[in-house]
């Protein structure tokens, strides 16, 4: 078997048993590679959606880059704006630049202790270290950025609300995003209300910033991922393995393996890969397995690793009853990312 240290060849993810210490998990709390250089200057606000520029201006102020522009024109006396709250919540659909802006806050804020991670990474850290140790770890931090705040697990939401409450009391500033599907009529307008209701104990600490717009990637959620025939798949995997490390797993084997690996270790599971290969993709019939796959795809997408697959197109793995259920937003986000990953 090719080891994780290998730079080329083929590995089986189902044979990897990654380990990740608490310190290593904390070291991972930085923006994903595609946002390493994200700045406010590189965020291109769409003039057709004024809320994008307004959000950018407010966040520059939040990050300490100057006061937000005064209303009323150049010759009007500037009024002192309302004091910024310790937290900001970016509310909007796919592809309007929320994660870019979140990373821009991280890079722009001139502080020593700052962290950037997805909601699942923070909750995984609590699971690995325990609540008290996690609070002690982040106590005194200047900034916590939380991408894709999830509201569908009451237990996780309660833990995060309690954690954030303790940190804000100690002076930590917060910035959070969550995703709203662009095709979900009316849902976007209620995302902020959902967020504030679920974190009611912390709601007064957050200023909601709405960002409208269309997906800059121009990917429709109801588009299709690419599925290859067996010969084309074999050719792509073999060719890619001469230039980098690739994985090649039966879809069922990977899904079974994900149940044995804590989601906090998924990032280590794909370490070193230049391509992920999945054979004989099939529709899910178990929601727990589907949600683990969503968490796995989040890590693959963050690492910008392409996917090649055979069988059912990857955007078709979530059955209609799952898409109509309480985890709909998660599945739609995963579909958007799966389409992009198979086209990369």
TrEMBL record:
The keyword Phosphoprotein does not apply. InterPro entries: ATPase_AFG1-like, P-loop_NTPase. SUPFAM superfamilies: P-loop containing nucleoside triphosphate hydrolases. It holds the Pfam family AFG1_ATPase. One of its GO terms (molecular function) is ATP hydrolysis activity. One of its GO terms (biological process) is cell division. Keywords: ATP-binding, Cell cycle, Cell division, Nucleotide-binding. The keyword Nucleotide-binding applies. GO terms for cellular component: cytoplasm. PANTHER family: AFG1-LIKE ATPASE (PTHR12169:SF6), ATPASE N2B (PTHR12169). NCBIfam families: ZapE. This is Cell division protein ZapE.
């Amino acid at each position: 078997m090719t080891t994780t240290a290998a730079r080329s060849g083929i590995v089986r993810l189902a044979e990897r048993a990654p380990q990740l210490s608490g310190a290593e998990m904390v070291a991972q709390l930085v923006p994903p590679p595609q946002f390493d250089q994200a700045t406010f200057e590189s965020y291109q606000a769409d003039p057709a959606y004024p809320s994008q520029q307004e959000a950018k201006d407010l966040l520059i102020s939040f990050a300490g880059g100057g006061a937000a522009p005064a209303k009323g024109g150049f010759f009007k006396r500037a009024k002192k704006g309302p004091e910024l709250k310790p937290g900001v919540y970016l509310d909007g659909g796919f592809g309007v630049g929320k994660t870019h802006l979140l990373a821009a806050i991280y890079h722009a804020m001139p502080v020593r202790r700052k962290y950037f991670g997805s909601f699942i990474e923070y909750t995984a850290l609590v699971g690995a270290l325990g609540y008290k140790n996690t609070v002690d770890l982040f106590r005194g931090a200047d900034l916590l950025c939380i991408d894709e705040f999830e509201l569908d697990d009451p237990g996780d939401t309660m833990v995060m609300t309690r954690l954030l409450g303790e940190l804000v009391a100690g002076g930590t500033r917060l910035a959070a995003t969550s995703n709203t599907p662009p095709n979900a009529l009316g849902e976007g307008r209620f995302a902020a209300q959902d967020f504030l209701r679920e974190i009611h104990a912390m709601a007064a600490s957050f200023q909601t910033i709405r960002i409208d717009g269309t997906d800059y990637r121009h990917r429709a959620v109801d588009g299709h991922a690419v599925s290859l025939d067996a010969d084309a798949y074999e050719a792509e995997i073999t060719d890619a393995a001469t230039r980098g490390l690739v994985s090649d797993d039966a879809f069922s084997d990977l899904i079974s393996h994900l149940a044995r690996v804590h989601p906090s270790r998924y990032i280590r599971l794909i370490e070193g890969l230049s391509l992920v290969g999945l054979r004989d993709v099939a529709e899910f019939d178990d929601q727990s397995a589907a949600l683990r796959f969503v968490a796995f795809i989040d890590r693959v997408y963050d690492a910008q690793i392409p996917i090649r697959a055979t069988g059912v197109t990857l955007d078709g793995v979530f059955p209609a009853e799952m898409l109509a259920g309480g985890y709909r937003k998660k599945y739609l986000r995963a579909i958007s990312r799966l389409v992009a990953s198979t086209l990369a």
